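Table S2 (continued). Query chain:
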Amino acid sequence: MVLDSFRAAPRAFRVLMISALIENVAFGLIMPYLAIYMVHDLLIAEWLTGIALAGYTLSGIPGTIIGGMLTDKIGRRVVLITSLGLMSLTMLLFFFAVDFVTLFIIVLADAFVGSLYMPAANAMIADVIPTQGRPKAFATLRIAWNTGMILGPALGLLILATFSIRELFVFGSVILVGAFAMNIIFIPETKPKVAEEQEITFMKFFQVSRNRTFLMLCTMSAVMWFSFSQWMGVLLIYATSNLELSNSIASMLFVVNGAMVITLQLWVTSKMVRFRRSLVLMTGQLIVAGGFSLIFFANDLLSLVACIVVITIGELIYMSIVSAIIADMSPDAERGLYMGFSGFVQSLGIGAGFFVGMLLLDVLPEARYIWFIFGAIGAIGSLGYILLGRMLGPERNLPKYQPEIIQLTPLPLEK
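Corresponding output:
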């Protein structure tokens, strides 16, 4: 049934899903080892690693802004192709890093060109999938990402059996070239005609913040990502240094998370669309916060995996609806701007989370207390969804999607 629905979806959506899977194989190939590569191979101090990871996110902010603007100005297809092509080059440059300075420059470049991608991808989905199908469409995108995040680390383990971590970046670059070629050959342009009549400026980009409800939604999701970013940075360093797990064993945590997303995301989405949007987001963030807090008590691989399971359950609930809400609140003529702005605010949260997490890991007398800190931040921050629910009002906060009619059918006016 899932495959039939996928085949019936617009060509732009199908190509985007496949290329996103390929892209995330490359990302998953190096992500479990990036912080380890910095600390253990390049001998960069943990607090400097935190700066590099924060820089990775913060450098993506102008990329997200410009990507959103270009998405509306020159089209989704050109932005996607440009981002993938440049990412293949910047990933290759990691191979040549020798110290913090060279690595930091490469990180900034890679983050900038990579961040051009998401506003265009999200806008393309909103272009071709109607409101009722968007929760399932964005859930499918997450499945594609996480399939890559399973295949990537698994491929990484095979490569590390023969090569070093440094060589992973060469393989990742080659994989990205494949996604780049696929988009050049197969993906169509989907920008609505109404967007061609709009003037796109930096002033207009930041005027999106005048939509207070949308700004509140973006800010709350940034709080979520501030805590959740520890999954991509601190957790693996903590697992290898404090729990003394091997690099290969630690990377299996990504496999557990990805497998749960692949098998459960569509089912969870079909259930969550029945409830109030603010309640779904609040519940998901609270469960994530609880899962991070439980890492305080983890002392071996089995207990750590149990914590990851809890965190992933919260992630499945939260991510089941947040992207669809952002898409629904984005006007057709300014879809790229709204997608770029949401990515901009969320990137601020991720960048701050990377830096604060690595700094706390370096300065706290007991590293495990970091999990209580981020768990508390996530739990307290989730209370903001009560206010968001009031700002949305009953009409926009009540369930908008009927699970039985969610299909990936194209909009009638698809170009």
